Amino acid sequence: MRLSSGAALPLVALLYALTGYAEPPPRQPAQPPADLPPGVSPALWKLVVPASAAPTPEKVALGQKLFNDKRLSVDDTVSCATCHDENFGFSDGKPVSEGVKGQKVTRNSPTVLNAMFNASQFWDGRASTLEDQAKLPILNPREMGMPDEAAVVAKVKAIPEYQAEFRKVFNRDVNYDDLAAAIGAFERTLYSGNARFDRFIQGDSKALTDSERRGWALFNGKGRCNTCHAGNAVNPLFSDQKFHNIGIAAHKQDFVKMAREALKIVRTGDEKQIDELALETDFSELGRFLVTKQENDIGAFKTPTLRNIGITGPYMHDGSLATLWDVMDHYNKGGVSNPYLDGGMQRLGLTEPEIDDLVAFLYTLTDERFTKLNQKFLTQQRARKNQRPERDTAVAMGKKGNLGDLAPNPDLNVKNPAELGVYGTELSVKPAPAKKP
Ligand code: HEC
Ligand code: HEC
């Protein structure tokens, strides 16, 4: 219960005095760190960090330790960092993640960088906060495999250094909420917004090569990427934070039948059940539908961030696309048709040099602290550039299937690079209306 009336306050103070706990500091808004990178606005930071979740240095240190500690798993083999590894941009480099006893889950590990800015967590948004999210993998049988919250608390409590540290940070015994709060605090230090692109958008037009600049124009023009992945000064993620069916799940499944079966068993609001269905069963492919039970959410997944995209492959919720060239092939042919395909998915008519430009642009979104890693992955992906299982040039170029209109590119000859795209402004290039079939 929250005591808010002024008269109640002295009573609270008395309680603290009697119990010997230190009185918590007054709730002031958390202050953004002085060294926020150019791509992360202080206003946004303030918006997403509630006073109660201020990442104090002690809490962050505890959270970082927990994030990296394999003892949070049932057999001491898996930590959060196993699947969110700094050497893979805080993802794991695998198509789908592997948890305890080598068990695979059904989904690809997203980066935790900038997860603090997500409007919801997971590919289907089934957790609303970092804290809610952190509680789930520890208990998921295929991820960290702990039987229940009490078992986690008992295990952590039995480690003397944790017992002392929890007491220092939270003034009380280890409990599951505080554990999640510490991890959340650490994750609130994993912001990332210092990419070459950020220098470009702040006016250094030489920060990008000609090819990368053409890629940015295509991103906002013919490629139509900005309809879902728009970036702007207060949303650094390049994501609309919404859910779309872009036809990835359609590679495999008979959705409609599956959705009917799922409706019978999904208990709305039961996060743990949905977590297990999402990570351990074929229902995974239903995506957002598992959370909302809305038909138009069938096969829809959250638009992911594109920051650090060069180092966080393989791509998509199921890790089915190996390189950014494969991603471009998927979009170029208008996705994979299915009854719930998003209306924004149309053939793009991109030529091979245009695809190269767009990929080059995507590689400029990696934080400069990962420059070496970025170069390594770019070289690896480029080496696979001629293996293109998703490519369908006839459809992309309108020689087969639905023609659709192509979107125009914005003019590259502007003084302010930001004017090329939607950065900080409204959509400048409206997608052409879809043709009726
Ligand atoms: C076995 C691998 C594995 C482990 C261990 C694991 N994760 Fe994840 N993580 C994933 C996968 C896979 C997803 C995506 C699942 C989904 O969306 O259904 C995910 C999603 C997330 C997300 C959501 C990101 C987004 O953009 O939506 C966050 C945050 C996260 N994990 C943090 C953690 C933390 C904190 C821990 C430790 C308590 C942890 N993870 C342990 C694999 C793992
Ligand atoms: C209709 C909305 C929409 C449009 C248009 C769109 N995307 Fe996406 N994008 C998504 C969604 C949703 C996903 C995740 C889909 C899934 O996993 O099933 C995604 C995934 C991606 C991924 C994989 C991210 C990861 O972490 O695995 C990349 C890269 C990407 N998009 C780039 C682009 C580019 C480049 C364009 C333009 C050519 C584009 N997108 C156009 C919505 C869109």
UniProtKB/TrEMBL annotation:
It comes from Pyxidicoccus fallax. One of its GO terms (molecular function) is electron transfer activity. Pfam families: CCP_MauG. The lineage of its organism: Bacteria, Pseudomonadati, Myxococcota, Myxococcia, Myxococcales. InterPro entries: Cyt_c-like_dom, Cyt_c-like_dom_sf, Cytochrome_c_Peroxidase/MauG, Di-haem_cyt_c_peroxidsae. Residues 380-417 are annotated as: Disordered. Residues 58-160, 210-366 form the Cytochrome c domain. Residues 1-22 form the signal peptide. Gene3D superfamilies: Cytochrome c-like domain. Keywords: Heme, Iron, Metal-binding, Oxidoreductase, Peroxidase, Signal. It is found in: Cell envelope. GO terms for cellular component: cell envelope. This is Cytochrome-c peroxidase. It comes from the Bacteria.
